[in-house]
Write a structure and sequence with these properties.
By secondary structure, the protein is of the alpha+beta class. The protein has 3 domains: about 5-90, GIY-YIG endonuclease (3-Layer(aba) Sandwich), CATH 3.40.1440.10; about 100-250, no CATH class; about 260-409, 2-Layer Sandwich (Nucleotidyltransferase, domain 5), CATH 3.30.420.340. About 50% of the residues lie in helices and about 20% in strands. It has 17 helices and 13 strands. Strands 7, 8, 9, 10, 11, 12 and 13 form a 7-stranded mixed sheet that branches. α8 packs antiparallel against α13 and α10 packs antiparallel against α11. The longest helix has about 30 residues, at about 380-409.
């Protein structure tokens, strides 16, 4: 699809789901806070850097753009997952293939739990709960951070049990703050069963039926003079028809602003002792310290920097709820680049890699790897690498001092 053709389409400035098509075939499905602004990003000049060649290929092949409006970003998130599961668009499955995405599962129990689990674990039987114990499964959801925010909103409308709140020591706390239901009586069991039925309808995109069911329950409570329960249903109806998804809106804006995320990695130790690894993040030229991560090395007992780097990358890549970077920076030379490439290949993730080569005084003398990125993002690469080195040294010193004090004792 050419930008001239796109400019003729009048998309609304509302939440929803959009479809790139080639004839009758759906090539790609996405969600948006603003359908107008989100789809505009597919015709930006920096699309290659922000989304890669696969999405460029999709846009070139697409001949038509359709959309479906929703009343909230939350509903767009749920609708996107349902439609991707139904249609399996080629470019969605190619772009996201084999990543361990999250799914929402509802267990088969007297008081069912609502769980967010990894789809890959379910597929290979690695989860604590076996798939045969589920009455329903929704997803996969491609963004773990957005799903967590979504479940916070959903739980306020449909209070449910999860693994944590179902524990006897935790239940009363969750019940008092309105995140877990009363489960003390037979009537409570029936009410919770209705709650789960409505939750399932909501995940199926049938919000109007849920509102209708809530209104019937409210009227029934009022007739029985159970005014406290009737008022509670009134609040839930309001929450459902006025979904407050500000957290999702903020997150969606961050995702759609085409920010360029760099992650840098470094290892620190002294003769193989107190070995640690770190990850630092630079977005749009600024260090994002709130997203820095620490890794205590578990698999290496000697001064094996590449082995430690492999462990850190494998553990990081297992966290698919963290947004993937557009570029990875490692400290070192060819060996570090090769071990990073191997880790990415095992995880079936395609991300460009560069390494910062140092001189005898530990000052940068060259950036190896992808030269296009090395030239274009030199300042950002060096900043990320410098932050990784500083952060790794600080963490190593902390571990060394802690272990020294334990020995002294």
């Amino acid at each position: 699809m050419k930008s001239e053709s796109f400019k003729k389409i009048k998309l609304p400035d509302t939440p929803g789901v959009y479809f790139f098509r080639k004839g009758k075939d759906i090539l790609y499905i996405g969600k948006a806070t603003s359908l107008r602004e989100r789809t505009k990003s597919y015709f930006a000049k920096d699309l290659f850097n922000t989304r890669g060649p696969l999405i460029i290929d999709m846009v070139v092949k697409a001949g038509k753009l359709d959309w479906q409006e929703t009343e909230s970003v939350l509903e767009a998130l749920i609708l996107e997952a349902e439609l991707i599961k139904k249609h399996q668009p080629y470019y969605n499955t190619r772009e996201k293939d084999n990543k361990s995405f999250n799914v929402v599962c509802i267990t088969k129990e007297v008081f069912p739990k609502v769980l967010v689990l990894r789809e890959r674990g379910l597929r290979f039987g690695l989860q604590e709960e076996n798939a045969t114990k589920f009455q329903a499964k929704y997803g996969p959801f491609t963004n773990g951070l957005q799903l967590r925010e979504a479940m916070k909103i959903i739980r306020r409308i449909f209070p449910y049990l999860d693994s944590k709140s179902a524990q006897p020591d935790n239940f009363e706390f969750y019940r008092q703050i309105g995140l877990a239901p009363d489960i003390g009586t037979k009537e409570a069991q029936i009410a919770y069963g209705n709650n789960i039925k409505n939750l399932k309808l909501f995940f199926q995109g049938k919000k109007k039926r849920v509102v209708s069911n809530f209104k019937k329950e409210m009227v029934a409570y009022a007739k029985n003079k159970e005014f406290e329960l009737a008022n509670e249903m009134k609040k839930r109806i309001f929450a459902l028809t006025h979904i407050n998804d500000i957290a999702l809106l903020k997150n969606d804006v961050q995702l759609n602003k085409n920010s360029f995320r760099i992650e840098a990695y470094d290892i620190a130790h002294m003769g193989g002792k107190n070995m640690v690894g770190v990850m630092t993040v630079v977005e749009d030229g600024e260090a994002v310290k709130s997203e820095y991560k620490k890794f205590k090395i578990r698999t290496q007992s000697d001064a094996n920097d590449t082995g430690a780097l492999r462990e850190v990358l494998e553990r990081r890549l297992a966290h698919t709820e963290w947004p993937y970077p557009a570029l990875i920076v490692v400290d070192g030379g060819t060996a570090q680049i090769n071990i990073a490439k191997m880790s990415l290949k095992i995880a079936d993730v395609n991300i460009p890699i560069v390494s910062v080569l140092k001189d005898e005084t530990h000052k940068p003398k060259d950036i190896m790897g992808d030269k296009d990125f090395a030239v274009k993002y030199k300042r950002e690469i060096l900043l990320a690498n410098s932050e990784a080195h500083r952060f790794a040294i600080a963490y190593h010193k902390k571990m060394r001092n802690k272990n020294f004090l334990n020995i002294e004792k």
